[in-house]
Amino acid sequence: MEQWLEWARGPVFRACFAIMLLGLARAVVLNTASVVSLIYDSRKKGRAVSWGPVVTATLQWMFPVKKGFQARAVFSFTSMLFHVSIILTPIFLGAHILLWERGLGIRWPALGSVAADYLTLLAILTGAALLAQRAGASASRAISRPQDYFLPLLIIAPFVSGYLAMHPNLNPFGYNGTMFVHVMAGNLIFLLIPFTKMSHVALFPGTQLISDLGWNLKMGGGQQVAIALGKENEPI
Amino acid sequence: MKADQKLSYQVEPFRTEDRPRRYLEAFAAILKHSNYGPVLDFYTRVAAKCSRCTAACQVYQASGDPRDIPCHRSELLLRVYRRYFTLAGELKARLYDPFVLSDEYIDEMAEEYWRCTACKRCKSTCPMGIDHAMITHLARWILAEIDIVPKAMLVSVREQLEGKTKNTSAIPAIAMKDTCEFLSEEIEEEYPGAGVKFPMDVEGAEYVFFPAVSDYLMEAETLMGNAAMLHVTHTSWTIGTTNFDGINYGLFYSDRMWERIIKAQVAEIKRLRGRKMLIGECGHATRAAVEGMQNFIPPEDRVPVVHIMQLAYEKFLSGELRLRKNAIKERTTYHDPCNIVRKGWIIEQPRTILRHICEDFVEMTPRGMDNYCCGGGGGTVSLDEIHDFRMAIAGKTKAEQLRRTGAYYVVTPCANCKKQTDEIIAAHGLNMQKVGLHDLVLKAIEFEPTGSGGG
């Protein structure tokens, strides 16, 4: 099992992390290119981009203290806590920082073990609560895809396994097996980030802007559509 | 050729053969000649399906029907985009995704996208900023290119662009002139010596006036108030007799028509050598003109677009428009039309005037940028055949809002909102009266100089 664990931590992790970085880079580069092109086009024809509302909305959603309570407050609050815990815990966990230091020689301040424990439990509880709220509300059920149920489960998997690995007295399974699940679940998350809604980890800052730029309508575009469809001489 | 009986709104007969292929061709052509592609690409990647939009949409709140959830509706189009216009969709289709665009699916889109009032209220509750109204707008354009468009929209636009009268209500210019002369006489009868006129085809005027043309038929008080305000403030303005309709239904269903209509309106301003475009009390006409001017008119031909409430507000602040304080005794409330409020364009201007002229002005809750749509937005108010839907579902929240104010007057400065509000008042048995801002301005206006400033 130890060899399997090394395999998961080594080549599999590197491959998954590289796919995530490349996938996100592709999405960011392509979408940024589109955004820049639309901004340029807007400026060229003198259409004002609503920078004020766009930046305000982006920041309001990045730190949704106010926005988060305007609609479905309980769900939104749960989601906010979920995001805080799943972002902070893996990045600032001492054991993870140690791995980065071993691999790349870089380190940064770590969370205390008690704080990390509480944040881990928070991630598990809020993830489960999000899932329950999704399954329990008919409106949410109606618009949910399989990935909307699968991803929260996948995301809390490394938190559950990580917590058990760090608390042997609570863990009914062996350490190496638990860690293998922990690492592989994390790897799968990295792998899926560019191909699922989790891509918002990189695309989120551009979402409000793209919605504004979408109303940058193309001068003469309608006539071009008519020509393409052979309707340019058709009466209405 | 046959009209599809499955739809809840009337359509002219359209070709039914090979619709999925023609739909995809239209979609592809629009993606190629518009800027919607990058937006759809973003949306398909990040849509979180959090269902927060359910708390914002008055249609879903009233119907409880999952098909009215904004995110559900948008997914109809995003699914087609993902399947046919992305590499991932192509791969998934080869591996496991059985989705194929069918006639039934097109019918479903044709129905659902005309149950949205395109009010944009849901956008502010979406963490990903998804503009479901934009998706509705695009989806309707694609449908229109395969000739699925409500007959009421189509017939109006046809008359406006290719008919004899060049306006959506098919009012001949001579009839419009007669109406204006009659309205001048009405004002004179009510306010002797006022001398209010409706100037026609005056070359070089500062403002060329484009109210919603339906005002000439149904909103005489608003038009009289418009003319009186412009008269007492010595504003240089005119009505063009070859194009006097501010309505632009292109905003509701087709960028192609939107561009043609705004170009025709600007051509009229150029013919008269006017300097600014003055829009009457109409929300969609204002947005269609402001955004249409920026998008479809070359910079050298553009003119500033001014909403008549903005102008009245400026004239009031400058003291040129003198209004009697507390002239309106009845309790009055104000409805924010979505197309002028959602981006924060016009919120306080009419309220400043109303607080001055109304003894008992009350707000509805929520108000301003968070206000609920009247339930007739996005062109749905023009579809008489969905009256029951507009009253029982789309307009239910607005009816409750209105009732809670206890107001006698509800000021609704928009032609679409006016029609819908009138119908809501009747259908829900509300004891109130719908008016335009200028209906009340007319009651409060001081025609004789008194030396007291308004602002």
The fraction of residues in strands of chain B falls at: 5-15%
Number of helices of chain B: 21
Beta-strand percent range of chain A: under 5%
Main sheet characteristics of chain A: none
Q: Strand order within the widest sheet of chain B? A: 2-1-3-4
Q: Which CATH class of chain A applies here?
A: Mainly Alpha
What does it look like?
The complex is a heterodimer of chains A (236) and B (455). Chain A has 236 residues and is an all-alpha fold. Chain A has one domain: Fumarate Reductase Cytochrome B subunit (Up-down Bundle). Helix content of chain A is 74%, strand content 0%. In chain A, helix 2 runs antiparallel to helix 10, helix 3 runs antiparallel to helix 5 and helix 7 packs antiparallel against helix 8. Chain A is elongated. The relative contact order of chain A is 0.14. The mean pLDDT of chain A is 93. By secondary structure, chain B is an alpha/beta fold. Chain B has three domains: 131 residues, Fumarate Reductase Iron-sulfur Protein, Chain B, domain 2 (Orthogonal Bundle); 153 residues, no CATH class; 124 residues. Helices cover 50% and strands 7% of the residues of chain B. Chain B contains 21 helices and eight strands. In chain B, the strands form two sheets. In chain B, strands 2-1-3-4 form a four-stranded parallel sheet. In chain B, helix 14 links the parallel strand 3 and strand 4. In chain B, helix 4 packs across helix 5 and helix 15 packs across helix 17. The longest helix of chain B is centred in the middle third of the chain and has 18 residues. Chain B is globular and about 80 Å long. Classes of the chains: A mainly alpha (236), B alpha/beta (455). At the A-B interface, helix 1, helix 2, helix 3, helix 6 and helix 10 of A face helix 1, helix 2, helix 4, helix 8 and helix 13 of B.
Layout of secondary structure:
The complex is a heterodimer of chains A (236) and B (455).
Chain A: H1 2-44, H2 51-62, H3 73-92, H4 94-104, H5 113-136, H6 138-143, H7 146-166, H8 175-192, H9 200-203, H10 207-213, H11 221-228
Helix pairs in contact in A: 1-8, 2-10, 3-5, 5-7, 7-8
Chain B: H1 19-32, H2 36-46, H3 58-63, H4 70-85, H5 87-95, H6 103-112, H7 132-145, H8 151-162, H9 173-190, E1 207-210, H10 214-218, H11 220-232, E2 237-238, H12 250-253, H13 255-271, E3 276-279, H14 283-296, E4 305-307, H15 308-318, E5 328-334, H16 338-341, H17 348-357, E6 358-362, H18 387-394, H19 396-405, E7 409-411, H20 415-427, E8 433-435, H21 437-444
Parallel strand pairs in B: 1-2, 1-3, 3-4, 5-6, 5-7, 7-8
